[in-house]
Amino acid sequence: MISLMIAIPLLFAFVSIVFKGLAKYALPFIVLLNILILLIASTPVVENIGGWKAPFGISLVLDDASYYVVLVVNLIFLLLSLIPQIIDKGYDTIILLLLTSTNGLVLTGDLFNSFVFIEITAAAAYILAYHRNNPYGAFKYLIIGGISGSFYLLGTIFSYVGAGSLNMAHISNNSFGQLTAAIAILFILGLGVEAKLFPLAGWVPDVYASGSSLTPTILGTAITFAIMYLTGRIFITVLHGTFLDVLYILGLLTVIVGEVAALRQDKLLRALAYSSIAQAGLVVAAISLNNIDSLTGAYFHSMNDLTAKFILFPIATVVIKGFEKDRLAGFAFSVASFSLIGFPLFAGFRSKLLIISSAFSAGNYILPAVLFFASIVEAAYLLKWNIKLWFEKSDTSNNIPWNLKTIVLVLSILLLIIGIYPDLYLDASRKIAQSILDTQGYINSVLGGI
Amino acid sequence: MSQLLLILFIGSFLVYLLTRMNWIIGVLANIGLAIYSFYRLFTFKVGTSESIFSLIVNQNGTLVYSELSKFFGIISLIVAISVYFFLINWLEKQKNRAVFNFFLALITASTLGVFFSGDLLTLYIFWEIMLLFSVLLVQMGKEDSKKAALNYLTISLIGSYMYLYAVFMLWNRYGTLVIKDIVQKISVETSIFKWAVLILIAAAGIAKSGIFPLHTWLRTTQGSSPDAFSAILAGQLEKLGAYMLVLTVAVFPSLKMFPVLYGGIPVFNYVLIVLGMISILIGTLMAIKQNDMKMLIAYSTVSNSGYILIGLATMDKIGFAGGLFHAFNHAIASVMIFLSFAAVIYRTKTSKIDEMGGLIWKMPLTFITYLVGIISLAGIPPMSGFISKWMIFVVLVKKGMFLTAAAAFIGSVGSFLYVFRPLAGVFLGQLKSKHKDVKEVPIFMLIPMLVLVVITVFFGVIPGPVLNMITAVEKELNIQPLEHTMTVIKSSVGQWNTLTVFTMFAVGFIIAFILYMVFPKAKRIPLTNQYTAGEFLYNYDLYHYSTRFYAFFERLYEKHPSVEKLYEMFGKFFKDIGEFLNRWFYSASPSAYLLWFSIVLLAIFWVRW
Amino acid sequence: MIYYISIILIGIGVYGLLSQKNLFKHLISLALIDTAINLFIVSTGYINGKEAPIYSEFTPIANFVDPLPQALVLTAIVIGVGVLALGAAMLIKIKEKYGTLNVEEIRRGDK
Amino acid sequence: MRRFLSALIALGLIIILLEFLNLIPDFGNVDLSKRVSNSFINKSVDGNNETIEFKKSKDLEDGSANVVTSIVVNYRSFDTLGEVTVLFTAALGVGLILKGLRRKRFYREPNFILKTANGILLPLIFLFGAYIFIHGHLTPGGGFPGGTIIAAGILVLYLSNEKFELSHRAKILESGMGTVYVLFGLVGLILSGIFLRNFLPTGVIGELFSAGIVPLIYVAIGFKVGAELSNLISEFQKEGQQ
Amino acid sequence: MTAATIFVGILMVISGILAIESKKLLDSFIFLSLLSLLSVFLFIVLKAPDVAITEASVGAGLVTAVLILALRKIGGDEK
Q1: In chain A, residues 417-436 whose CB comes closer than 8 Å to chain B
Q2: ipTM score of the complex?
Q3: Residue B488: φ, ψ to 5°
Q4: Which range marks the domain in which residue D163 is found?
C-alpha cells in the first residue's frame, strides 16, 4: 500500500504534462490520499517492491520514524497546495515530482534507491532553484549537487562491496571494519551538501534568495526535514554512529558561520537563507550527539524550524512595504521569528531547551555555548528585520493573498500552542528518535528476524 | 501566586482589547490590575510555594513567595502604578496605544513572575518574556530607538544566556532546579564549578542593572525609549537586575562558598564590588558629559546600580540593608526624574538640555518633582536617598575598604554635578522663545509625580516601614538583621536619627524663610537684564548657555577608553566576517565550492585515517 | 587496473572543476566524473574469467560477472545525462542573462 | 598557480580514493556468493535451487535471459522507475528553463549527402532502436539505449529538414508510456497486493515472448525515453517565442 | 588484454586532460565523446555489454549532441 504514496503522485506527474493544469488541482487530493494511507497504516510496514524479499529487492519501510517524517512532509505539501498562487505555471508538475521523490527518499530502505530519489529531488530542486530566472545560482547548485551525488553513489557502492547488498538493514547488520569509515566519509560529503553543512554547501543563499517564494518555502522545509531524517537514518541506524564527531564539528561550524553571515545581510531573504543554514547545522550537531534526548530535540527543532520557515519565507518574498497594513501577516512573521530565536512561550524555546539539556547530560559543554551565541546573533538580526518591517511607512498593503494569510496565521498559532503544549510535536519527534536509534528493531522488521 | 500571574497575563490581553476600544479605559484597567496585584502581595503568606507547568521532564516549575519577592514586588508595583497613572494623559501622544499598554501589562506580570519564581528555569522564562516585550517597547520610541533596542536586546541576551548556561550546569549536576535545594548542595562543590556558575548567574544581573562591562545599552536605550517607559525601565526592570544580584550574593551563600578575602567579604563578592566601583566611576564621569537629559540619568543609573551592588556584596547587616534600601530609593527617585522629564518632553518635544531653559515658572510642580528626585538621588540628607548611601558608606568605612569608599565618595560628589546640569539647563535660566506657551502638564500626570514626592520625603523622615521589610529579608537570608527603630538606624560607628535630621533641616529652612521675609528684598529685575547689565535689550535672544556645562572638567578625560566602542568593534568584526563569508564563500564560484568540498575531504582524511 | 584508471579520471574531473573558469568546462568535468565513477562501479563487479551476465547460446549456464553494478550503472548513466541536460539549459540562460560564461566576469557583473 | 593548486588537490583526492581501494577486494577477485546478485543470476530469490539453462528452464521467478535486464526491470524495477522520473524531470526542466529564450533556431543548409542518406537511414535507425528495446531481455541493450537511438533519429531529422517540428504527440507518448509503467505496477498491486509485481507468466528463458512484464515495460521505457529525449532535443532546437 | 586495457586507459586519461584543457569548447566535446567511446571499450572488457551499449548511445552520442546544441544556442565558442 505505501508504495502508492510514491506511485500516485508520479502517475499524475506523468499525466499532467499532457493535461496542463491538472497537477495544480490534483495536488491537494493526492496529498490527502497520502495522508489517508498513512492514517490507515500501522507501523511497522515493510513493503517489498515486486515481491522480492528484503536484502534482494527494494523494500519500502514505514516504521515510526519514516511514518512521522512522511506525515510531516505531506502536510507541508498540503499547505503548499493550498497556496497555488506561488506556484508558477509549469512548476506544478515539478512539485508533484518533488512530492514523489521526498516520499520515496524517506520511505525507501535501500541505499541505491535513496540515491535515485536524492537525484530526483536534486533535479527538481535545480529546476526550482532556477525559478525566477536565477540560472547562475541554480547552475552552481547543480555542479556541487552533482559532485555530492557522485560521492553518495560511491558510498553506496562501497557499502555494496562491503555488505553484498544495498539494503540498509542488511548493511547495518554486517560489520566491515575500516570500510565503514570510508563509507561514512563519502556519505558525509554526499549528504552534507544537501544538509547545508558549512564548507560543503555554499549554494544555499544564492538559491534561497532568488526572489521566488516557492523555492525556499519547499526546499527549506520539506526537503530539509527529509534530508535530516536520512542523515539520522544513515549515520545512526546504518553506520552505527561512525564519524558522528565529524558531523558534530561541521554542524557547529555551520551554526556559527550561518548566523554570523546572516548578520550583515541587507536582503531579508538572504538573511533567512543563512538562518536556515544555521538551524540545519544545529539539527545536525544535535543528531550527532546520538542519544535519545538530543535526537528528539533535533527533530523537534527541525519541525519548529520548518513551521517557522513556512511562515517566514513566503511572507518575506511577498512583503516589500512593511506590515503597517498587513498586521496579521506581521503577527505571524513576528511569532515565527521569536520562535526561531527561542524566546520562552514559543515553540523554538522548547526544542532548544531539549537540545541544551541533552547536550549537558551528554557532558557536552560546547554545543550549548555555540547555541547561545547563535541565538544572540539570530535575535539581533531577526528582530532588526521585524522592527524594520513593522515600522516601514506605507499607505498601501502588500496584497498578500487571503489563503496565504490564513495559513501563516494558523501556523503561527500552532507555534504558540507548541510553545505551551509541545506534546504534539514532541511525541512525533520522540518516536522518530526512538525508531532511528533502534537499529536492531529496524533490522528485525526489515529482514524479518534473520 | 499562579492564580495572580494567570489573572495578570489574561488581564493583559483584556487590557489590549479594552485599549483598542478606548485607550483611557485600557489604562484604567491596567491600573486596576496593578493595584489588585499590589493588594494581593500583602495577602500572600510568606513561605508558601506552588508548582506550575513543567518544562523539563520530572521537573515542575515552582513559585515561592518570600520576603525578598515581597520587597521587590512592592517596589516594582509602586513604580508601575505611578507610571500607569501618568499614562492617563501621556498615552495620548503615543502611537500604537493598545500594543503599548498590552506590553506594559505583560512586563509587570512577568516581572512579578520573576520575583515569585522558586526555581531557576521558571525565573528564566519570566525573565525572557519581560526582556522580549521590553525590547518591543523600547523600539516604539524615537528614531534611533530601533538601534538602541537591538543593542539592549543583544546585551541582555548575553546576560540571560550566560545565566541559562549556568542553570543547565546546575541541572546537569544536581537534577534539580529548585533554588532552595541547589543552595544547600552547592557549597561543597569544586571551586571552579562554583565560580563558573555564580559568575554566569551574576552576568544576567549585571547586564540588567547596568554594571560595568555590560552597561553600554543603558545610554541609548533609556535615552531613546518612550519617555514613560524609561521610568519603567529604570524603576522596574533594572531592579530585576538587583534582584538577580541579591540571588547571587545572598541566596547562594557566598559566605560559605568562597574563602574570605578582606574585611569578611568573600572573594567572589569582592570581584563584584570592584565591578560596582568601576560602574560608579564610569557612570558618574559619563553622566557629567551628557547633553541629553535622559541619557544623563541613564548613566546615573549605572553609578547607582554600582552603589546597590557594593551594598549588597558586602554581606554586612548594614551594607546589605543599605543596598536593598538604595534599590528602593533609586527606583522611586529615578521614576520621579524620568516622569518629570517625560512631562517636560510632553510639553517641549525635546530632550536636549541646551534646547530648553527657564521652565521653572512654566512647570513648577514638575520642577519640584525633579528637585526632590535629584536630592534623593544625589543623597542629600532629608530625603531617603541619603540614608541608603550613608549606610553603604558606613559599612565601607567600617570594613576599611577605603578605595571603594573613595570611589563612592567621588560618585556622590559627581552626582551633585550631573544632577545640577538638567536643573540649571532645563528649569533655570532663560526661557526659550519657542517655549513661551508651555503649560504645566495635566493633572493625572502630576498626581503620580507628587505622590512619589510625598513617598520620598516620608521615607526620608520615617524609613522604618521599609527597613522592617529589609530586616525581614535579611533574617530570611541568614544575615544578622539591621538594628533600627522607626526613625533611628544603629551602626557600630554611630547612629542616624532621621527625625532629628529632618527637624534640624526643617528648623533651618524655617529660619531661612523668616530671615527672607524679615530682611528687605532686593529689587526684582527681568531675567534678561542679568545678561546685559541693564542695557536695553532689543531682541529676545539666547543669552543663557548650558552646553558644555562642565567643559573644564570634561577635558580631563576627553580621550577615555570606551567599552561601548569596544563592543562596536566586536559587532563590526562579526559583521565583517559575515560579509567575508558571504562574499568569498557563499557567493563564490562552483570551483570554490568544490575547493572547500575537497578541503573537508582532505581534512577528515588527514585527521582521522 | 581499471580501478586506477577510473580514480585518475575522477581526479582529472576534479582538477577540471577547480582550475577552469569557463562554466561549460565545469559541466564537462562533471560528465567526466560521472563516466569515471560509472567505470569504477562496473569494475567492482568484474570477476576474472567470467562472462557477461546474459544467458545465451554461448553461455547457457551461469558463469557470470556480478550483474548488479551494471544495472546500477545503467541507472546512473541516465541520471547523469538528465543532470547534464539541465545544466546545459541553465548555461544557455546564464549566457543570455550575463552575456558570458566566465566565472570571474559573471562575478563582476553581479556586483 | 591556480592550476598547480588544483592539481595538488586533485592528487590528494586520488590518494584518498586509492587508500579506500585497499579496503575493497582486489580487481577481479570478487566473491560473488556473498552478494545478492548471486541469487539474481540463479533466479533464486524465492528459493529456486535448480541450475538454469538457456532455452530450457521454465517458469522461473524471472524469465529474462539478460540478467542485467532482469535486475533493472524486475528485481530493482523501482530504481528504474525513479531513473525514468529523473529523465522526465530533466526534460520537463529543460522545457521550463528554455521557455521564452530569445534565440534563433540553429540551422544550416543541410548537406546533400545528409538529405539523401536521411531517407534511407532513418527507418533503419528507428528499426534498430526498436529492435534494441524489444530484445532487451535477451540481448544487451534495452529501453534506454533503444530510446536514445530513436531520439538520435529525430536529431537527424532536425538537422536535415528545416521545417521539421516535433509534434505534440511526442509529449503524449512520453506521458502515456510513463503512465503505462506506473499502471503496470498498479496492476501488480491490485492483482497480488505488491507494487510492480510480475503478473504474467515468465515462459522459457531465452524466448522472445518470455519474462512476463519485463519486455513490455522495456518497450514502454524505450518509447518513453525516445519521446523524452526527442522532446529534450527539440527544446534545444526550438525557436523561442519572441 | 591487459596491455590493451592499459593503452586504452592511457588514452582515456589523455583525452580527459585534453577535454578539460583544450581551448575550444567544441574540441572539449569531441574529447569527452572520445573518452566515452574508450570507456565503452573498457565496459566490454569488463563484460558489461548492456552498459557498453547504453554508454555508447547515451554517453557518447546524446551527451555530445546536447552539449553541441547548447553551444550553438549560446552562439558558438568563446575563446
Answers
A1: 420
A2: 0.88
A3: -120, 130
A4: 67-237
